Amino acid sequence: MKQTVVAISLVLLISSLIAAGLAEPFSIEFYVTLQTDKSVYHPGEEVNVTGVVFYNGSLISELVAIQVRDINDTMAFRTVFSTPSSAPPVIEGDINGDGRVNILDAVIIALHFGAHAGEPNYDLYADVNKDGVVNILDMVVVAIHFGQGTTQAAFRIQVVDTYVGDLYGNPVPNIMRGADYYVHVRYKNTQQIPIYALIAFTIYDANDVPIYASYVMSGIIDPGGPFSSSIRWSVPTDMALGAAKIFASAYSDYPQNNGYPHCPEKSDTFNIIPAGGLSISEQGYQTMEVPGYYYLTFRIPTVNPKIGTYTIYATSFHLDRIALIASNSTTFQVQP
Questions:
Q1: Looking at the domain covering 92-148, what would its CATH class be?
Q2: What is the pLDDT of residue 286?
Q3: 276 pairs with which residues across the strands?
Q4: pLDDT in tens, 178-197
Q5: Model-level pTM greater than 0.70?
Q6: Which of 240, 247, 47 is nearest to 161 (CA)?
Q7: What one-character DSSP code corresponds to residue 83?
Q8: Where are the domains of the chain?
Q9: Strand extents, DSSP E, the chain
Q10: Under a CB-based contact definition with an 8 Å cutoff, are residues 244 and 55 in contact?
Q11: CATH superfamily of 63-87+154-309
């Protein structure tokens, strides 16, 4: 297995500052590891990707951007946390995506209170528990988590939400094979200046196989938001039935170009049903957390698998006295 480690270093700049008496000497060691559990896989096998993020000899919790490329193109974009002790909390009830749960989130629910899916006043984000109606149950979620989060934790670019829906932005929970739908991603810029971002997503089927990876936006995001972008998606006629999942991420660039994550990823589940519209039971979706590591798993397709060399890229960003970017890449083989 071949690994390449790249770290952006500011040694010359720091040395100059120290020589000029403008900075105290200090050591810098920042890197991300990346490995797969095997070097050769076959169609249908599960790929387990793990790694850690080190800063000055210690494991730290940071976001890690992951990009998986097969022999032709990107098959998956993901953003995962390294977790030295425990995974960072996901703040439920943060409807407007500002990094905290407060009265502003409750106001959004109040403005859409009583609205059902399909009605003009219905808002997907005010329907916190996604049961098709904005009611007291959604307000309870906000009340339980009220006060959580902090303005200091807010990310410059935030992915607010993502889902699969129709052309008009309405979510569609049951997706039929062979039909066309739209991948929607909502994001915002929390700063007062324009910021470049790549907003990318990946759809997994019920067997954890990455089915479709692309981006909905690449360019400058003006201050404010939320903004919405979408892209049409044709559901494969042979896509596995059951609970599928979508993940959306925001990067400074492609991870293969050392692009680092702007914020944690957002996800949503939906159901893949036969073309005739017969619904099937939804399956659970689980992820594994290993203390001290980041972890990502996916499965090699069994239908039309691409044989050859696959490459995984991992990039992380850390800000202490200076901004640091560490990246790593590794390859594995897919054989018949």
A1: mainly alpha
A2: 39
A3: none
A4: 999 999 999 999 888 999 99
A5: yes
A6: 247
A7: B
A8: 63-87+154-309, 92-148
A9: 3-7, 30-32, 35-36, 40-41, 46-51, 53-55, 58-59, 63-69, 74-81, 157-165, 174-176, 180-189, 195-204, 210-221, 224-234, 242-251, 266-273, 294-299, 308-319, 323-334
A10: no
A11: abc- transporter (atp binding component) like domain (2.70.50.60)
